[in-house]
Amino acid sequence: MPYTPMRAAVTIPPTLSPEEVAGYFDLDWGFSDRLLPAVLDTSCVRTGLHYQLANGEPPASVKTARDGAVRLFMEYDTLTETKGRLPRFASQFKVPEDELRRILDEDWLPYIQVVKLPPSARQLDKRALKVYDADADDYPAAALAALLSPCILLTHNYKDFAALGVRTDSQGVDAVMAVIDVMIGRMHVNATLMVPALPITIAGATGKWAAEKIGPGAWLILAVLVAGGIFFYLRQPEDRRERIKEFAGKAGAYLLDEYTAATAEVAKGRLELHACLVPKPEVRSGTSAVLRELAVAPKSLSAQQLVELVDHSLRPPVPALRAYLRANEVLFTQVRRGGFVLGRQYRLDEV
Question: Domain span at residue 133?
Answer without folding.
Answer: 18-182
